[in-house]
Design brief:
The chain is of the alpha/beta class. 45% of the residues lie in helices and 9% in strands. The chain folds into two domains: 42 residues, no CATH class; 273 residues, Nicotinate-nucleotide-dimethylbenzimidazole phosphoribosyltransferase (CobT), large domain (Rossmann fold, 3-Layer(aba) Sandwich). The chain has a six-stranded parallel sheet with strand order 3-2-1-4-5-6, sandwiched between helices. The termini are far apart.
């Protein structure tokens, strides 16, 4: 079954690439001396098709959803932690809240499919598709219709952000059990062995990791392999991951800079990439997570992470911490003097 969702994503045009590179190289510095900042500046300028890019109203959408796979004992934390952490987000007490405040990032918290009803809250967006996914060890986590509904919700939320003036966006997630979904998606979209895709998640020991891998392997062996992206995402994904996938595709369509967070968000990107590989032109890999498998995910997508701080929290924290570095890249491109304007001699 193919998705009825369609996105029109254009690769960033390269006609001005040489001009952008000349501007970067003509700054008062040795050639290439700003390293990754130069690469970032060039990418943002290409995305925006301008020599003077700007980053406006950065926003991170944090999607929360529960996972039926927790029935198989794949997480040391109980499922009720998912709604508890949503309340923590709403109260401003989570790590993502701290870093968002620090870096002036707007946060939006979305109930994508948590297994409880929340009391209405002005800062909680209710886009619940269902009360958690089903157990993918036994059946499809969601129906294709539910998966498409989640993707459509994610896309619509990005449309709202764009209307508010956001042109750089990131995504975070919360969902006990979601690293199991992400590991399964990683394997199916990359063919990397399951044992190399499975990590500690919220803190499993070696026995827990082994059990988690075995659960996923058995589930994949039971999977009726319809190899289109919608089938894979529907069978093994989570509502928060499907919502993120749709949001990424829409953000690329809107020509936004997309800050890619850690393991779970990159799993959603693997799905988005399978729908339309042009999405990668808009993606900045904020960091390399300490969760097993994330580096291999990034390498598969031919990305280069900005930072590696041994983080594996999720929530969009890596994107929030990396934002100032992306802002520095744009700032030097716009504000740093050229050899000509500063009357500085070039290297011989």
């Amino acid at each position: 079954m193919e998705s009825s969702i369609s996105f029109h994503i254009e690769k960033p045009l390269t006609a001005i690439e040489e001009t952008i590179q000349h501007k970067i190289d003509n700054k008062t510095k040795p050639f290439g001396a700003l390293g990754v900042l130069e690469t970032l500046a060039k990418q943002v300028a290409l995305i925006q098709q301008t020599l003077t890019p700007t980053l406006t109203k950065p926003c991170i959408l944090v999607f929360a959803g529960d996972h039926g796979i927790v029935e198989e004992g794949v997480s040391p934390f109980p499922q009720e932690v998912t709604p508890q952490m949503v309340h923590n987000f709403l109260n401003g007490g989570a790590a993502i809240n701290v870093f968002a405040r620090q870096n002036n990032i707007k946060l939006k918290i979305i109930d994508a499919g948590v297994a409880v009803d929340f009391i209405p809250h002005p800062d909680l967006l209710n886009r619940k598709v269902a009360y958690g996914t089903k157990n993918f060890a036994k059946e499809s986590a969601m129906t294709p219709t539910e998966c498409m509904k989640a993707m459509q919700h994610g896309a619509a939320l990005v449309e709202e952000c764009a209307a508010e003036g956001t042109n750089i966006i990131g995504f975070g997630e919360m969902g006990i059990g979601n690293t199991s979904s992400s590991a399964a998606l990683m394997h199916l979209f990359t063919d990397i062995p399951v044992v190399d895709c499975v990590g500690r998640g919220t803190g499993l020991d070696e026995n827990g990791i082994s059990h988690k891998a075995n659960v996923i392997i058995k589930a994949i062996n039971n999977y009726p392999r319809h190899m289109d992206p919608l089938s894979i995402l529907s069978w093994f994904g989570g509502f928060e991951l499907a919502m993120t996938c749709g949001a990424m595709l829409k953000a690329a369509e809107k020509k936004m800079v997309i800050m890619i967070d850690g393991f779970n968000i990159t799993a959603a990107l693997l799905a988005a990439h399978a729908f339309d590989s042009n999405v990668l032109g808009y993606c900045v890999f904020s960091h390399c997570s300490n969760e097993n498998g994330h580096r291999a995910m990034i390498e598969f997508l031919e990305g280069k992470p900005i930072i590696a701080l041994d983080m594996r929290l999720g929530e969009g924290t890596g994107a929030a911490v990396a934002l100032p570095i992306i802002q520095s890249a744009v700032a030097f491109l716009n504000e740093m003097a050229s050899f000509d304007s500063a009357n500085v001699s070039r290297e011989k």
